[in-house]
């Protein structure tokens, strides 16, 4: 049986990262460095209800493309 392609523009198994407009428009968010914003998205990708986030500094530095001290 052929697999039916989803009409939606994203992978249903992977889900969607949703960020509120209020947070994106806040002064605190706008004043954050770009690496911190990327880190927020990476941590949200790792988050699950049933287990703690297991994301290390070296892994973050590698995925963001920054120095270890920046990832810390």
């Amino acid at each position: 049986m052929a697999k039916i392609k989803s009409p939606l523009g994203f992978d249903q198994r992977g889900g969607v990262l949703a960020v509120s407009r209020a947070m994106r428009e806040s002064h605190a968010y706008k004043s954050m460095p770009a690496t911190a914003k990327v880190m927020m998205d990476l941590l949200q990708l790792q988050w699950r209800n049933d287990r703690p986030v297991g994301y290390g500094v070296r892994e973050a530095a590698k995925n963001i493309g920054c120095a270890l001290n920046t990832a810390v």
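The chain has one domain: 21-71. The radius of gyration is 16 Å.
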